[in-house]
Specification:
Helix content: over 70%
Distance between the termini: 19 Å
Number of helices: 22
Radius of gyration: 44 Å
Largest sheet: 2 strands, antiparallel
Order of helices and strands: HHHHHHHHHEEHHEEHHHHHHHHHHH
Strand content: under 5%
């Protein structure tokens, strides 16, 4: 046998069903050929990819707006802490100056005056003992004064004016006596309600907060009710709120800014609607590209097959050729429809979510990323294992289809040669191989969903725990936790989609290699046959075809 004949026979055998390997020989080469052949659909593909990116960007903006909406709603169901703090500062401002309001003077002259007065010796001893107690503990000065006899208070206290408010001696003594009913440690301030009006106005003057006037009586009632409640219990605080004066409720009570909530809600609705419209148009565009390109491929293959010599069909199973026209073309079309746009939108979501997370809060971002990486390492290991089974499935499917086509087309020959058992055994072998590839690929692919669920749940827990700690320290608001729960989903889902899209692209590359290999190698056969015949007759000058058979 000549070298040319050997080469021709080897080349012909190369077209058989055993030619396809488990993975594409040249992944990038097959993808480049695929992209080049898609040139007529370039505009639609560009529009689809741009819309996929824009849809992903809008999805990234939404969590921040949802965070703002959550914070606004939270403000509407919680006490206004800023106004509460302002009111408390206003209440304590004059209480710290109560010594000047009472006008108590305990200099040497006053002490001498008390000791030289005509009061009883018992009252003088009580006064001197009180002075010693005050010198050792200044914080309880009013408590000690409340225990002094009236004869002593009548000497050391007199009428005075504070902020244009006249306060008589009797009002001051009554105020000092009321302090005996005040227990600061146990938050019992019931004695304040018995203060004279002059002292109430001096200690708690009318004030305006957020355009709402809070009177002296409102302040006194507020102190009395709040002092007797348990501030650590949220339910009890809200119960007390119901009994507070109306003006105080307006200042510190929950208040929703409905106009702002409506504007944020409308903006969110617009973002989601526009994103959905972009996704819908992108889906329609890619469907048109996939179906149009599949039609183009089938037409090209059909045209090429009609021009093939009979020798080609002697060396290639018609079922394998049919598999390339149907299964492989369908694989390419499905990949164009699903994987290409998914790959672009997933990459956009992945990169964008990382940027948005770090822009919002770097501590929460690190928590979300680290908690997700644990599961993704396992996921990529599984994807690496499953990749070869997906490509092998395409190969075995082509073999099985080719064998079935050949057997059923030559069924009479099989029966006449009594080869029924042999063909059934061969079919069982091919079917078992396809079953094995399907089982392994689907099993490994089926593991992805539970793993992604675990990654998502684990990340949610980590984000909630760290977020709660940051909220307790007033580093972030509650809305940030809500935003990060969405960012975790936007971060984890794209990674799995990218991995699945890359796996799909591997199958697409393998299918493309089979389809383009059919078209290109058929053309190569025709060129080689003519070249070999020309070489055989050693044509010189003018070509003679009389000996060419």
């Amino acid at each position: 046998m000549s070298s040319n004949e050997k080469e021709r026979n080897n080349h012909s055998r190369g077209h058989g069903p055993m030619r396809v390997s488990e993975k594409p020989k040249d992944f990038m080469g097959s993808i480049k050929k695929l992209m080049k052949s898609l040139s007529s659909f370039r505009v639609l593909i560009f529009i689809a990819l741009v819309l996929a990116s824009l849809s992903s960007i809008l999805s990234l903006i939404a969590p921040n707006k949802l965070s703002d909406l959550t914070d606004e709603i939270t403000k509407g169901i919680t006490i206004n802490t800023s106004n509460m703090k302002e009111l408390e500062e206003d209440l304590t401002k004059n209480i710290s100056d109560i010594g000047n309001i009472l006008g108590i003077n305990l200099d040497e002259k006053m002490i001498y005056r008390v000791n030289s007065s005509g009061i009883s010796s018992e009252d003088k001893i009580k006064f001197n003992d009180t002075l010693k107690s005050i010198s050792s503990n200044q914080e309880l000065i009013l408590k000690y004064f409340s225990e002094l006899p009236d004869s002593v208070l009548d000497i050391i206290i007199g009428d005075s004016t504070y902020n244009d408010i006249y306060i008589s001696k009797e009002d001051k003594i009554t105020t000092i006596r009321a302090f005996s009913d005040i227990d600061v440690d146990n938050k019992k301030f019931n004695g304040i309600s018995s203060f004279p009006d002059s002292m109430k106005k001096a200690l708690f003057p009318d004030t305006v907060i957020d355009g709402i006037e809070i009177s002296t009586d409102d302040k006194v009632e507020f102190i009395t009710l709040m002092a007797g409640s348990d501030s650590s219990s949220v339910n009890e605080m809200y119960k007390v709120m119901e009994n507070l004066p109306i003006n105080v409720q307006k200042v510190i009570g929950p208040k929703m800014d409905m106009d702002k909530i409506k504007s944020i809600a409308i903006l969110l609705a617009c973002l989601y609607i526009i994103s959905a419209i972009f996704s819908y148009i992108e889906g329609l565009s890619m469907i048109k590209v996939a179906n149009g390109y599949a039609k183009k491929l089938r037409s090209s293959i059909s045209e090429k097959i009609n021009k093939l010599p009979l020798k080609f069909f002697d060396h290639n199973l018609s079922g394998d050729i049919l598999s390339r026209v149907t299964n492989d073309v369908d694989t390419i079309a499905q990949s164009l429809n699903n994987s290409l746009s998914t790959l672009v939108s997933s990459i956009t979501l992945f990169i964008g979510s990382i940027i948005m997370m770090f822009a919002t809060n770097y501590i929460m971002a690190i928590t979300a990323i680290v908690s997700s990486l644990i599961g993704f390492i396992l996921m990529f290991i599984i994807l690496n294992k499953s990749q070869r089974y997906f490509t092998a499935r395409q190969r075995e499917l082509g073999k099985l289809n080719g064998y079935i086509e050949e057997i059923y087309s030559g069924l009479n020959v099989v029966r006449s040669c009594n080869a029924k058992d042999e063909t059934i055994n061969e079919f069982d072998k091919l079917n078992d191989k396809l079953y094995d590839c399907n089982r392994k690929s689907q099993f490994l692919s089926g593991l992805m969903q539970p793993i992604m669920g675990f990654i998502g749940n684990f990340s949610y827990v980590a984000v909630c725990i760290v977020g709660a700690l940051l909220v307790s320290k007033s580093v972030i608001s509650f809305g940030v936790i809500v935003a990060f729960i969405m960012y975790v989903r936007l971060f984890t889902n794209p990674l799995s989609q990218i991995a699945q899209a890359m796996t799909s692209m591997q199958s697409t590359a393998a299918a493309s290699e089979r389809v383009f290999g059919l078209l290109e190698e058929v053309e190569m056969d025709s060129e080689n046959d003519i070249t070999k015949k020309l070489d055989k007759h050693k044509v010189k000058g003018n070509i003679e075809f009389k000996n060419v058979k």
